Amino acid sequence: MTEIDGLRRTLRVALLGAGSVGSQVARLLLEHQSDLAERSGARLELAGILVRDIDAPRDAELPRELLTTDAEALIQSADIVIELMGGIEPARGYVLQALRSGADVVTGNKALLATHGAEIFEAADQVGASVSYEAAVAAAIPIIRPLRDSLAGDRIKRIFGIVNGSTNYILDSMDRQGLSAQEAQRIATELGYLEADPSLDLEGYDAAQKAAILASLAFHTQVSLDDVHRQGIESVTADMIADARRAGYVIKLLAVCERLSEDGGDAVSVRVYPALIDREHPMASVHGGNNAVFVEAEAAGPLMFYGAGAGGVQTASAVLGDVVSAARRHIAGGVGVGESARQSLPMAPFGHITTRYQITIEVADVTGVLATVAGILSDHGVSIATALQTIERGEESSTARIVIGTHRATEQALSDTVARLADSDAVTRVLSVLRVEGE
Amino acid sequence: MTEIDGLRRTLRVALLGAGSVGSQVARLLLEHQSDLAERSGARLELAGILVRDIDAPRDAELPRELLTTDAEALIQSADIVIELMGGIEPARGYVLQALRSGADVVTGNKALLATHGAEIFEAADQVGASVSYEAAVAAAIPIIRPLRDSLAGDRIKRIFGIVNGSTNYILDSMDRQGLSAQEAQRIATELGYLEADPSLDLEGYDAAQKAAILASLAFHTQVSLDDVHRQGIESVTADMIADARRAGYVIKLLAVCERLSEDGGDAVSVRVYPALIDREHPMASVHGGNNAVFVEAEAAGPLMFYGAGAGGVQTASAVLGDVVSAARRHIAGGVGVGESARQSLPMAPFGHITTRYQITIEVADVTGVLATVAGILSDHGVSIATALQTIERGEESSTARIVIGTHRATEQALSDTVARLADSDAVTRVLSVLRVEGE
Lengths: 439, 439
Hints:
The structure is a homodimer.
Chain A: E1 3-5, E2 8-16, H1 20-31, H2 33-40, E3 42-50, E4 67-68, H3 71-76, E5 80-83, H4 91-100, E6 104-107, H5 110-127, E7 131-132, H6 144-150, E8 156-162, H7 165-177, H8 181-190, H9 199-202, H10 205-219, E9 229-230, H11 238-246, E10 249-262, E11 265-278, E12 290-297, E13 301-308, H12 312-332, E14 354-364, H13 369-379, E15 384-393, E16 398-406, E17 409-410, H14 411-423, E18 427-437
Parallel strand pairs in A: 2-3, 2-5, 3-4, 5-6, 6-7, 9-11, 11-18
Antiparallel strand pairs in A: 1-2, 8-10, 8-12, 10-11, 12-13, 14-16, 14-17, 14-18, 15-16
Helix pairs in contact in A: 1-12, 4-5, 5-10, 7-8, 13-14
């Protein structure tokens, strides 16, 4: 499989998938061959590119002789297998086959890792092969390696980040250009930020997959997609964004991974939801399709990683970084310690997290309403940080809006409070409920 | 030197230096022993701590039996040597001794790497040992590893960053609290941001050392402190900061590492100077003692890394990350490809860089002055982007101030222009000259 070529070994690289990322990876592997050889210590030979249909039209020019539909043969002959097909099957089968044959695997497949990560890392451990996946989260932004290596001597308390560029593009253009959700989505689709089926992005599945991957790594605990509390941006309206702006906030779809102290030890909470961020927070100035990840570690303090959250060539940069590392390891002959789920912390019930709520309700403009509302919060042990009442005079009756910012309380207390408010005769409607993060 | 302890090997770790970082490293090594063992695959035994005087008073409680003044014996017995003494000698001698005895070295010593990096990396290569130095630049912020590993398949075009927390603290408090340079320095000293001899920070030496380290790594070219064009913040006044603010800028001490296309191939420019940054740029919101590094890579696009720029425990986090990696490598039995200076790009003359200048001059308020000034710029092929003239009426005569923002031009043309302006009869004084970066 490997041969000595003068002083240098050759490693055979199989590429599975030739989409927007795959074709860029192929191009860079071919164009930067000598640079990559110097950096990895081996000649990296692109052995073949697995495609579904050799004759299908492609954006990028790929050497036709490298295209193949024979997955088995390609994988069997490779030292390093790059999986960029996406989806669960056949990607899962190919990755397992590659690992069983002793190849190192580089993948950008977040869906696969968020659902079958445990199986894949175990297969890698059994044969002493490596699985790298920098490209699976936040495209070119180095976040996996810093979590795994740079902070390996530290203890991570919390990660929160903007990890989905499409929804950030939508929320950002609603905030900065005053667009409606529909308009913003239409433009995002035109610009290629949203897929034909946008639900993966809009409903927060994509962000939840990435959150599961980050949490697994940060807390040495296998977190899968099902463990993630997920809420998308479908319910975020232009009004909510305008209200947030007036209150000094911006709405971002956040992925939050947190270590909680529970009775009986630490537990993990992983969640995705639209949240309010103070406009002064560095996260508030993450515009367009960019991503940013905050990491709070015990010793290192807060760190932020920022950059493009998508894009073929950007993601290809992350893939190639992993390929070079895999090649170095392949030559050094050892992979060190594999992916660890040794802490196996339990998942904290969602009700146990503590946040601040910003609750906007419509009430009848009658005497004593604010007192009633304040009483409901107090009944649940939730104290009020700010309350703002505005009144709209109508012909016959008036309605008032109250925006309540709570102090920090458990999700349980806060959601019970909102349920009681919704049931109360004093409250006409609950207009919006958002959590405040990043404080 | 190593022994099997059940299933696990033990690696002996020697710590040289017990200052603010060293004592935190010792504490974390002892407190997090089982975590570190899980993550590195080996028990990390703190074999000893080299100090100058065993009986000297210390901030942190360190086990007295670990303290030693016998450097030779301690280093000789170690698998991993952590050097946190600072300064050139005896640190250099100890590091070389450690490498010759086959130990992996982890160091936070930027002065040593910026002046003797080539010698140290060569010594490491000869024996197949590793030298890690995440802690040498920007404390806990993972920047060395992303440059070396994550971006190993990419090509870096430019790095620019705030890499000195002390000067950032001073400039930030001048900007945000309107302090004078003296006041800001006094407070920075009180808060421990500045050393008793503050010249290393204020004159840009510290930033220049870090710039040399980053450029060496990014461009695979040995860049030493002497190659860095260096200007500190001594000349930055409250007036300059107020002027910058009015023009929508903030002044930051920047380290810039750039790949330039010269006739005959690429060259490298590395420089440290106070520069104007647009207030909308993410770098502008790096406050207090924080650091931030922007990396522009060909494929990955712009990336930013942000966090605390100093602090004992923060820096200790970076050291421990390196220790865990060194331990993993030690066990895997290979270090892969060493530090590379294979590109050996030439250093570009400072005059070859292109930037924009913001020139503030005082002129006599007489007819035709602006035309004279504009003529001088035009003579040097420098075109004007913005010009703002303000007039101060005095009792007898009036003076005018002109602020000129140039378009991008070579440093040579720009500095020649300023020299001609200074010589011109039309110009009373050149008040300030600042470059604009981050565009």
